[in-house]
Amino acid sequence: MGGGKVSSVGKELAKAEVRLKWDPSPHNEPPRHLDIIAATYFADDPRGRPAYVVHYESRSPDGTINMSRHSKTGMGFGFVEAMTLEFDRMSSAYGRVVVGVAIHQDDCPRTFGDISNAGVLVVEGYRELLKDAFAQVAGATAATVADFVRNASGTWEFHEALQGFDNDPAGFIAEMGSVSQP
Question: Which residues is 18 bridged to in the sheet?
Fold first, then answer.
């Protein structure tokens, strides 16, 4: 499913934010924990192993990708987790950033279909690039949502990349680069 909507709108994509929401688990169930994950790839190997990965316990070595909000339970109050990506400061050594969402798989395996009111929003300033409720990947335990690619002129483009995976967060990180590239 990757390679859908493309956005560059005549100007360089300088900074984007990925936001995540979901409702907390019912009172008698363990917490539901989702995470935004970004994998950054070298320009000369955009489908190889990630140069680095950013998630709730880390940030990029140069500070260009970081988590500005994090939740381990969802809150039911809208977007409770957010990751900021600053492409205008990113080294030219990097040519691709794939962003996804993974569900922590504790004692009770869960898919997006099991998570109430889940949603992802990708914005650049006030401009909405993607808004999705994971319905197309309801049976998946993780999903890529965005594929940011540096084009031949050196500017960054956004590509919608909603693709489901059936893996835990660690396994998902290893698979993220396989998302269909435009």
Answer: 83, 122
Give which of 145, 150, 71, 62 is closest to 104, Cα–Cα: 71
Q: Other C-beta atoms within 10 Å of 57: how many?
A: 8
- What beta strand segments (E) does the chain contain? 6-7, 15-21, 34-42, 52-54, 65-69, 81-86, 94-103, 119-124, 127-132, 142-150, 156-165
User: Is the whole-model pTM more than 0.85?
Assistant: yes
- Tell me the per-residue pLDDT of 112-153, one tens digit each, with 9 for 90 and over: 999 999 999 999 999 999 999 999 999 999 999 999 999 999
| Alpha carbon distances (Å) from 3 to 41, 150, 171 | 17, 14, 22
Burial group, residue 115, by CB count within 10 angstroms (0-12, 13-18, 19+): buried
